[in-house]
Design a protein that fits this description.
CATH superfamily: Winged helix-like DNA-binding domain superfamily/Winged helix DNA-binding domain
Radius of gyration: 13 Å
Helix content: 40-55%
CATH topology: Arc Repressor Mutant, subunit A
Distance between the termini: 26 Å
Shape: globular
Order of helices and strands: HEHHEHEEH
Number of helices: 5
CATH architecture: Orthogonal Bundle
Largest sheet: 2 strands, parallel
Structural class: mainly alpha
Strand order of the largest sheet: 1-2
Amino acid sequence: MTTKGTYEKIYDVVRQIPKGYVATYKQVAYLAGNANWARTVGNALHVNPDPEGIPCYRVVNSKGRVAPAYVFGGEGRQRELLEADGIKFVYGHVDMERYRWSVGIFE
């Protein structure tokens, strides 16, 4: 599969994450077709062509931490966007029990 096709599958999944929820890189990878694509998810989100339409800020690591190098304004900006969605942080990370999108959970 081409990178473009892979990235489009990833973007399709990320578009579906509802406001007020987050997904992990591995979860997005799994839903896009291959649970081993977690790094590919990160790469795709780093070059997100439409941050308004593809809410990449809703993707966090498995511990609920935001990306230290969030490409669209840094980790502080990612946290701001998540908080604007109504997501609360506990000890510096998203409360995954409460805010993880329940689709494709296997971790």
